[in-house]
Amino acid sequence: MPPLSQVFAVRGYLSLFIAASLSTWGDYIARLTVAAVVYDRTQSPLATATTLAVSLVPSIFGRSVLGPIADRVPYKYVLIASHVSRAAMVLVLIWAVSVEAPVPVLLVALFVLETLGGPASAAQLVLMTDLFADRRVFLRAMGLSALAEQANQALGFALGGIIVLALGPVRGLALDFATFVISAAVVALVVSARPVPGEPRPGLSGFLADLGTAAGVVTRHRVLRRLLGLSLVATLGISAPEAVALPYAGSPGFGGLLMACPIAGAAVGVVVVSRWEPHVSNGRIIAMALAMPVPLLFTAFRPPIVVTAMLWFVAGTLQAFMLPLQSTFSLVTPDNRRGAVFGLGGALSVTAAGCSYLVAGWFSELTNPASAVTMCAVICLGATVLLAARWPSGELDTAVSRAYAA
After folding, report:
1. Residue 234: which region, alpha, beta or left (left: phi > 0; alpha: psi -120 to 50)?
2. pTM for this model (two decimals)
3. Alpha carbon distance 356, 56 (integer Å)
4. I want to staple 119 with a disulfide (CB 3.0 to 4.6 A). Which of 69, 76, 83, 405 is the partner?
């Protein structure tokens, strides 16, 4: 596989990589800042949790409903508009915090801020597929993006906490505003405006029809359908350890360690898998997906924390099958439907993650955290076995050959 130096050799990629990281930090800084303000005013853990939930729900709405915009407007302008509009909403948040507006006003502003990020997610993926003509370099770039996403989540929360503590919420949000403005400026200077492929149907009716078409593209295409189905099924096994890590460990210190183990394992797995040739990595998707929940099954025996951490780390490493899955899904999707399909897939993934947290938490309430992880792993493994029985290996291999032919 090409070295990472070839990824950064692509004109403009480094600037876009930095801009995307800044935008991600901005999202997480805003979420944490608003959550901190809400908790400070209400002293209610439920209200704080509601704030974080409000930041998740609009991601589903924004990606699914606004994703098709990337098929109708050049992605350069979609990205700029998304960053600028989010910067404007941060100004609204700064005003609301400054005048001590009611908590519902803060939540509405945060909801709109997160919703406006929906089209940017789809447009960023479309940009990536266009930016790398060599699809093997594209696969390496997707691996790097996966690593960066995990690191940026941690950095965003960590920076958000430090910023709120050191500067206060208003100045923290001012830095958040700067991240979106800088991101918009980088896109404006670096990205070329390319016409959208195909001829989008005009008007609101055409836009709504595009939403239905995206679902039709996925359901009629056996490879896309299976890849998306596997990613949704795997989410239960991926999310369960993180959902119950704190009650499982019994202390924030050990709980934080356990939550970090699958993420650290996934980072190691991505580094390894990104070096495999596309046919090799795609050929191992279903095998790795079947193996991923197996280490989690041993959680049923309630081993010591250190052993549990090792088991969850291994399960996280095996999650790296998501890299070739997502890369191939991106390349197999028709050019003129990428925005809508990426938006739909992202919305379903976020929904699956939220539902997985609820399922794992519910199992934990009924039994205990160890049993909850085990039951989620059993369900995940059983569903994956059903998918494996009808896995389209031949069709996937053909799709990979066509997708990476460039």
Report:
1. alpha
2. 0.73
3. 13
4. 69
pLDDT tens-digit map of 281-306: 999 999 999 999 999 999 999 999 89
Residue among 318, 341, 344 nearest 330 (CA): 341
Could you read off the pLDDT of 10-20 as tens digits, one per residue?
A: 888 888 888 88
Given a contact cutoff of 8 angstroms between Cβ atoms, the answer to whether 289 and 242 are in contact is: no
Please choose, from the candidates 163, 126, 224, 219, the residue with its C-alpha nearest in 3D space to the C-alpha of residue 29. Answer: 163
Euclidean distance between CA atoms 194 and 67, whole angstroms: 17
**Reported CATH class of domain 1-196:** mainly alpha
Q: What secondary structure does DSSP assign to 53-72, as a single string?
A: HHHHHHHHHHHHHHTTHHHH
If you search the block for the tokens 């989008």, which residue do you land on? 200
Q: Round to whole Å and give the CA distance between 175 and 168.
A: 11
Distance CA 378, CA 111 (A): 35
Locate CATH 1.20.1250.20 in the chain. 1-196, 199-406
State the CATH class of domain 199-406.
mainly alpha
Report DSSP letters for 323-342, one per residue.
HHHHHHHHHHS-GGGHHHHH
Angle (CA) 231 232 233, round 5°: 95
The upper half-sphere exposure of residue 396, i.e. CA atoms within 13 Å in the direction of its Cβ, equals: 26
**Distance (Å, whole) CA 363 – CA 374:** 10
CA 64 to chain centre: 14
Residue that the structure tokens 């403005």 belong to: 181
Q: DSSP per residue over 82-140, as a string?
A: HHHHHHHHHHHHHHHHHTT--HHHHHHHHHHHHHTTHHHHHHHHHHHHHH-SSHHHHHH
